[in-house]
Amino acid sequence: MAERIDFRDQISGNKWKSFFLISSIFAILVLFGYVISFAFEPGFFFIIMIISIVFSLSYILISYYNSDKIAIASVQAKKASRESHKQYYSLVEGLTIASGMPMPRLYIMNSSQINAFASGRDPQNAVICVTTGALEKLDKRELEGVLAHELSHIANYDIRYMTLVAVMVGMIAIISQIFLRSLWFRGGGSDNKNNWIFLLIGILMAILAPIVVQLVQLSISRKREFASDASAVKFTRYPVGLIGALKKIQKDAVQPEKKISKAVAPLFFSNPFRGWGSTHPPLEKRINALERM
């Protein structure tokens, strides 16, 4: 028999793993900067840093402060009517009362997939969106489990956390591009062997660092999904509902959703593209973890 796990331990463990992973991205950023400062003049490194910070922060902060509007508009979701979707409203209201959270705005997306997502920079500016497929195919307990999972993302400030990760990943990508392009304009001046060693290390890091940090970013996303599953159990005290929803998604033979952009896909309860990417843990692993709670 598999060892039982406490949902509190699951939440804490995944948060610590996420912290360790984001620390590793920061370490790569610092190491990359250190190598560049030796390969070129230190002043050149500061110019690269300033440009990358301005570009990445400008892009990410605009997206962050409008994350709820962008996500809803990108999937063409409509505001849910309290009269037409009484169960949807009553389940979310019950969960917000139990968790002490403000009521998010509720939306519905036209899709036969069983899915949902949450967005917004904080609990006061949050939205939850479910697909028509989720409302039609899930029973009350299963839908409650999915909604509790999405509310957990809001409670855990996952949008804010993943925005911080995206800023650092974006900075590394921009620094890499500027560094590689600057090599065309670098004179062959210095014969210092140390400079050439750091230059070669810098080129290697500029090629590999964006790939490595993107893989780490995907890993952080997967850890946050496990943490939200555990937090959903904390809210409902009923893992069977969430397990039932995940099992129905496993058996659902619906085609991958085409109108969802890859930028929004990580927000969803389950991977909307099925075989694409690895922003979500395998359904089997999520079910296994929940069955042990």
Report on the architecture of this protein:
By secondary structure, the protein is mainly alpha-helical. The chain folds into 2 domains: about 120 residues, no CATH class; about 160 residues, 2-Layer Sandwich (Zincin-like). The protein contains 10 helices and 4 strands; from the N terminus they run αααβαβββαααααα. β3 and β4 form a beta hairpin. α1 packs antiparallel against α8 and α6 packs across α8. The model has no long low-confidence stretch (mean pLDDT about 80).
The total count of strands amounts to 4
What best-fitting shape do the alpha-carbon axes yield? elongated
- Architecture of the largest domain, CATH level 2? 2-Layer Sandwich
The biggest beta sheet reads:
4 strands, mixed
Provide the CATH superfamily of the largest domain.
Answer: Metalloproteases ("zincins"), catalytic domain
- Kindly report the average pLDDT value: 80
* Overall helicity: 55-70%
- CATH-assigned fold name of the largest domain: Zincin-like
C-alpha termini separation: 13 Å
